[in-house]
Amino acid sequence: MPQMTMVKAINDAMRVELKRDPNVMVFGEDVGTNGGVFRATDGLQKEFGEHRVLDTPLAESGIGGLAVGLAVQGFRPIAEIQFIGFTPEAFDSIAVQAPRMRYRSGGRYSAPIVFRTPFGAGVKAPELHADSLEAWLTKTPGIKVVCPSNPYDAKGLLISAIRDNDPVFFMEHLKLYFALKGEVPEGEYTVPIGKANVVREGSDITVITYGAMVHTAMKAAEQAEKERGTKVEVIDLRTLSPLDVETIVSSVEKTGRAIVLQEAPYSAGVAADVIALINEHAILKLEAPVKRVTPPDTHLAYQLIEDQWVPDAARVVKAINEVLDF
Amino acid sequence: MAKTKQRNMFGNAEVRLQPIEPFAVLSVEGKVVNKDAMPKLSDEQLRELMRRMVFTRVWDQRAVNLARQGRLGFYAPVSGQEATMIGSEFALNKDDFILPGYRDIPQLYWHGYPMYQAFLWSKGHIHGGQIPEDVHVLMPQIIIGAQYVQTSGVAMAFKQRGEKRVAITFTGDGGSSQGDFYEAMNFAGVYKLPAIFVVQNNGYAISTPFKKQTNAASIAQKGVAAGVRSIQVDGFDVLAVYQAVHDAAERARNGEGPTLIEAINYRLGPHSMSGDDPTRYRAKDEPSEYDEKEPLVRFRRYLESKGLWTEADENQVIEEAKQAVTDAIKKAESYEKMTVDQLIDAMYEVTPPHLEKQKAEFAKEGK
Questions:
Q1: How far off is chain B from A27, nearest CA to CA, in Å?
Q2: 0.95 surpassed by complex ipTM
Q3: pLDDT per residue as tens digits for the range A47-75
Q4: Of B180, B343, B349, which is closest to A110 when you measure between CB atoms?
Q5: What's the angle, vertex CA A151, arms to CA A147 and CA A153, rounded to 5?
Q6: Are A214 and A32 in contact (CB under 8 A)?
């Protein structure tokens, strides 16, 4: 099986779907000739032509509208927003128009669009390139939010997203683009949207997380086991909306303890929602309050203090111990 | 002297726009002023244009009353703008695609969207948005400008598939201030898309007059910046609007790209039936200035001069329209009640488990 970086796996997913379905299109700023600023679309224009893989003017709202218009005419657009911080410029299309298309038309039209965008701290990107803005969309009915943590999931989830008949906001962590390689099957396969993955089994505490924080959680789990023999279960959510309630709840019922780790600020995020679900479904099984490990409620501290801002394994281990010692 | 010299310093480097005048076929008196531009329409088609405008005026008056009685939800009156609405739709083919703003219900109706569904839409019933399969329109857009950027997408779909179809969209003078207005035209220009962007400049965006909306002399000139062919038409003149849209559609079908059309007209009524009071922002006698200019008067004069329209014709359409509205509101009001279930099922193709659970809880409460 070939080894691929995550960005290569994403590129491969689009190639597979462009080949399979003539209605799939890819567009955005610099995605054509240049192959995308991270080469996520490298070679696609050459292979599939300028009418299917196209450079757009520098205007995110225009990109979003183009996607919605093409989608109601039966195309399956993959619209790249060059960096997540540019998402607000296209917010009407992403958070309003696409998610409401099915409802507003009583099912006559849908908006099967994938809005792909890189995000994520740890690579010293400029301001407003890397913030974790997922909660803006996880609260929005009608759009799904997906965030892979490794090359295998990235390809399988992106193929699922492209085939989904509802809009999907697909978040690609910048730190994971080139950082690790993994085995990725050739050709088509899917990883289902809405299903979390237990990436490490354990019986003492569950760490629920997603994106690059999955790797931080794994590091922390190993450390906690080494230091105190703690058996940590780690759940990679993979899909942030809709959440996989069953996997979360059955793990917490088993371990009785949980922390939720996210790269987004503390309040009103995915972590808050996961904790609410645990309270609703498993509160009587809890041995201790569920804890959030997150950056503070600030904008992303880009560059100078970025590494202090993002949760690291040490903070996660500390939180694990606090919950165990409650 | 020095001042003049300085003023000319930039020569041809300075962009200067010529003043423009709206394209018209008929004068206010209903006389043909532009013989060469007269559209090639049969007498029956000319009568049909009048029939549709009268019908739409009666429908609008009835809808205003229904809204006052609380029998409609949101309603934006159309009186004064019939020539632009009817003339532009009449110039389209059945498979051309309309992306309307919320006021553009008449274009949808004459393109095939049933009136009772327009009433259901106004009331927030999900069936209102279920556009029949053979009707090529989107639902009325609420976010001013969103329909413009989407028009580029629809037009690109036609171009991709090599179809000779046109996407046409509508907004008001206020809409031309949105960034989406420019982004849409810029995209359509770059990709040479078969799109027609219509602005119904009715003088006011709710209460804000045109002169506070933009310092540009016209909205038409805004297309020039995007390299999009742009014209201004007399939006009270149904023949001028028809001709402008017909020509733009022909160019679009021939691969010549998009057109921006600014239609100068006037909204005789309020912005909407949700508490807008036009006496707060326009002079009391201002609407009466339009008694002469308004589209029905002008076209009636023209048709009467040609012996193509009589009082009996007019009365017949009025009765037809009244009956159509009565039937449509009756059908809308007796339509099966909407449920929370239907709303939940419309969120995704496959309702996810957490939402199924919420649905079951609402069902238990009998909602």
A1: 12
A2: yes
A3: 999 999 999 999 999 999 999 999 999 99
A4: B349
A5: 50
A6: no
